[in-house]
Every structure is written in structure tokens, then in C-alpha cells.
Design goal:
CATH class of the largest domain in chain A: Alpha Beta
InterPro entries (chains A, B): NUDIX_hydrolase-like_dom_sf (IPR015797), NUDIX_hydrolase_dom (IPR000086), WH-like_DNA-bd_sf (IPR036388), WH_DNA-bd_sf (IPR036390), WHD_NrtR (IPR054105)
Protein name (chains A, B): Nudix hydrolase domain-containing protein
Distance between the termini of chain A: 46 Å
Organism (chains A, B): Spirosoma radiotolerans
Oligomer: homodimer
CATH superfamily of the largest domain in chain A: Nucleoside Triphosphate Pyrophosphohydrolase
Largest interface: A-B, 33 and 33 residues
Number of domains of chain A: 2
Shape of chain A: elongated
Number of helices of chain A: 6
Domain Nudix hydrolase (chains A, B): 11-161
Strand content of chain A: 25-35%
Amino acid sequence: MQNGSGHFLPAVSIDNVIFGFHQNELTVLLLQAKSNQRWMLPGGFIGKEEDLDAAAARILTARTSLTNVFLQQFHVFGSAKRNRKEHLGEVLRTLGIELTAESWFMQRFITIGYYALVNYEQVIPQPDETSLTCCWQDVRKLPLMLFDHEHIIAKALQVLRLQLNYQPIGYTLLPKEFPLKSLQTIYETILGRKLDRSNFNRKLLSYGILEKKEKHYTGAAHKAPFLYSFREDMYFKALENGLEKDF
Amino acid sequence: MQNGSGHFLPAVSIDNVIFGFHQNELTVLLLQAKSNQRWMLPGGFIGKEEDLDAAAARILTARTSLTNVFLQQFHVFGSAKRNRKEHLGEVLRTLGIELTAESWFMQRFITIGYYALVNYEQVIPQPDETSLTCCWQDVRKLPLMLFDHEHIIAKALQVLRLQLNYQPIGYTLLPKEFPLKSLQTIYETILGRKLDRSNFNRKLLSYGILEKKEKHYTGAAHKAPFLYSFREDMYFKALENGLEKDF
DNA sequence: CCAAAAGTGTTAGGGGTACACCCATGT
DNA sequence: ACATGGGTGTACCCCTAACACTTTTGG
């Protein structure tokens, strides 16, 4: 990935917005650049003979060690000026790349945004060579970002909110078994507003994609909630066909 | 556009799915290739310093003579094999381009799909140098297409169906004044099913984006319907914020 | 016992669906 | 007059929002 001129498609990159869920907060996996301390999305380039989706999956796996996750293209960012900011110079200098106009990295880049929903606990964040660190950040308290990456995250969230109406969300964000309240909090965080517990449970259960398990023993001072799990057959069918709803 | 190596971004193209509406049918503007008689979407490339959306608009204007139309990015098609079919050889031969492996056109291309909704009557179809003709084709009776262009149209339609729930559709497809029945037929065509006339009228009028005009004098053997027009202020507000609806 | 959160139930209102009925117009 | 299609109204059903009440658990 350091010297892409030979192996990768020029002028196109991929940026992954990887969402996780931890302590009732929606988080994003970010890298901090060595060069200027700015934070950036895990991104990369597309092999000359590599399918687009495969490239996005490869990039995600490199930073998380996860495979087979929910990963979806959501928008292309194609402003001519998006990566021509003052940042680029700093980044390249640290990488030891000459700042000539012909540099492969100096060209104008279009980036294709993918978003992923992953299980926070299963991720082992791995920085790449250009980064100081790789870690989760609260979506609502983002640090100083590189280029237009803050805008990319905002767009990912916006699309995710719409998808919530059509796609079963949560399977890839939660452990195998979970209380319904966790799922509700995910929905509330994504939507940015409170939902009624009773109505939420009724609605989600009515889809028939959840299965009730045994009791939950928690240390909290309240009634122990039931655990649920996704019925995989129904879940994947719903992923394909959506959760009904149309004009 | 003939020899893009200097002026355009490599490896990325744009394809526009331009929808029009005529005689109660949804149509798409297509070009027929000189080389192999296959039909293709109006497409093109992105200038080295050109915004993505601007490139799509430029390509659309070149084929329709229209400006300021509803034009939206909807998907990226990035399979490594998508334009490597037997077609490519024929196309390049007719263009008089050598079939060397280094040819700018021989590289693998990612294409960004945009869809547009335009007023059929206002379009003056203009073929480009590589095409025999440029004309409208019924979406449900597509001719033999180049590459994966049939798939691109199918995806555009699928996205359009979803957008119908969130965006006010019709303003750019219809003349200034129109009977509600025309709008209903558009919805029915896009959705592929019949809608109840009474309910459709109530729903659309409830959005408050339509304005009732005078009577309609037609030669048909039935009651002359009212004409309506879009209230531009409300229309553009709805384009921004959607037509409500959430979880 | 009390607080907190899960589980369960009830009610009112809105919107969608499926009709029925009347009205205007051209043949 | 009659067929065609527009305009209007209505009854029903389901979904949702809002909220009340009970149950379980840890402190």
C-alpha cells in the first residue's frame, strides 16, 4: 500500500466507516496519522484486478482481523478538492515521499465510502505503517479529522438511519445473545432520540427474526431481562428482501 | 472524450440512467454503438479537476441539451470483470483504437451510476461519435445492452422505488401543469403495480407540494380533470428534508 | 422497603386500503 | 343514453404513540 503505482487503480480509494457499539455509545474505528496527528478512516486502494467489494473487505480485515462482516457501499465522495488540503503535504513528508507534482499520491482522488457494523468486543484494532494508533472513537465526540473524513462519517450515519427502516440492524453489532434493551439503545443512538420500550419490543419481535432464550443474570438492581438471539435464516432473508414497507 | 488519457481520470467512468416518461411508459435514454449494435447508457469520464457531480451533469447535458435536472448518484459498479467482455474488442476496433494491453480504454473501469428524471418532451437526443443513434427505449423492453448496462438500469430502478418513499418525484418528469392521473401513472410504472386513485390523490395532496389549477380540456370521453403544478418552494424543501417518515 | 428496569396491557388517533357513489364529458 | 374516468366520501383495519400497572431484582 505504500507504493501503489503498480498494483492499484489510480485516482480511486476506499474509506471504511466501521461502527461498533460500546457502553451505550456508537463508536467508529479510526487511525491517527503519524504526520500531523489528525485522525482518519481506515482506507486503502483497489487492486488492479480486484472487485470493489473485495477491496473494501480486505481493508476492513487488515484493521480489525474480522471477516464476513456487514459491509456496504454507501456513497462516493468526488469533490475535486477533497484531498488537496494543507494536510496532504504533511502526510507525504512523513511517509518519506517526495512532493513532486507527479507523485502517485499527489493526484486527485475519488473515494468510495463503505460502512460496516461490527461487534466491538471481537475487534483487535491494528494500526498501519502510517499511523500512531488505531482505536475506537465516540461518534458524537470526533477528534480533529483528516481531509473530509468527518463529512464521510456524517453521511454514513445519515444513510444508516434510513437503512434502519429496511434492514435488520444489530446482528453484527451484538454478541450472540443479548437483552432487547441493548438493541433498543443501538436504535436510539443511531436515530438520536429515545424510543418507547414497550413499542420497540413489540415491533422488533413482530418481525420474527428474534428468538427468546433463557434468563439473564446481571449485577444490576433490577429485574433480569430475557436474552434474545437472531434467527439466522430469517435474518439473512430480511437482509435480502428488506423488512417490508413500501409506498 | 475520444482520447482521454490526458484530460480525464483513469479507471473511473460515469454512466447516466436518464428516465423519461412518455405515453404512460417509463423510458430510458440510450445510445446504440456503431461497433456492435449493442445499446449503452450515456456515459463519460471525469475531468482531472472536475467535481464528480459536475461531470455527470456535463455528460447528461451533452446528450439531452438539458441543464439543471434532477440527477443523483446511486451506486458504484466495481466488478473487476464488468467491462472485459467480448464487447470491448469490437468497440475499440470501430473507434480505430489499437488493441494493445496498454491502451487507455483497455484498463479495468469502475463506473459510477447516476440517475436522472427528465421531461421527455424537452429532450433533444444527441448521439455521440461512437453511436448510430440516441433515443428513448421502454424500460420494460430493453434491447441488447453493452457490458453490464442492463444491470445498472435495474439497480437504478430499484433505488428509485425506495426514493419514492422519501423524495417528491415527478416535478422533473412532467410538464408545468398536469393532471394527477399522470403522476399516479408514473408512480405505478416505477412501482410496477396499480394504486388506488382515491387514496393516491389524498396522499399526494396531503404533502402540500401540489397546487390546484384550472380545468383541463381534453378530447377524451370523460370528465375533464383538474390540472396541478408543483409548489416550487415546498418541492425543494421536501427534496432536502424528505417527506417525513422514520422509524 | 425502595429504586430501577423488565414485562404486560390498554387506549386513542392516524394513515392506509378497499370500496361505494355521484359528476362531467364525448361518442 | 351510455361508457369512461374524475371527484368525493366512508367504513374498516392495522400500526403506532403514549402511558399505566405489575413483577423481579439488588441495594
